[in-house]
């Protein structure tokens, strides 16, 4: 199992943006993100001061988009930390496996779309940061 992902492997991917006076449209198709997705969900109505995430995945990859509003994604690879603000609906953050993430500072009305490479499997989650650091040392 490759646990060598670092924050340097993170990517911001621009989605196609079709501009129209009636409103803009962006699309995610098979070649936009580098994995076949098996699950899509979204976070919304996150109360002020609340945080989401607080875990890493052993195998799952994700692509996060702020469809509305903004939020911060605090990322850690076991050694280094980086914070990315998502606030543009045609730009998303590609998260490889083996990266700890915490989502915080949600603006009012923020919506976070998550596209995942796998279906939900509890065994894929690392929910304790100390266990995550040990996992990265393997």
Summarize the structure in words.
This protein has 138 residues and is mostly beta strands. It has a single domain, classed as Jelly Rolls, CATH 2.60.120.10. The chain is built from 1 helix and 12 strands, in the order E-E-E-E-E-E-E-E-E-E-E-E-H. The strands form 3 sheets. The chain has a 5-stranded antiparallel sheet, with no helix packed on it. Strands 8-7-10-5-12 form a 5-stranded antiparallel sheet. The protein has a two-stranded antiparallel sheet with strand order 2-3. It starts with 10 loop residues before the first strand and ends with a helix. The model has no long low-confidence stretch (mean pLDDT 95).
Produce a short descriptive summary.
The protein is mainly β. It contains 1 helix and 12 strands.
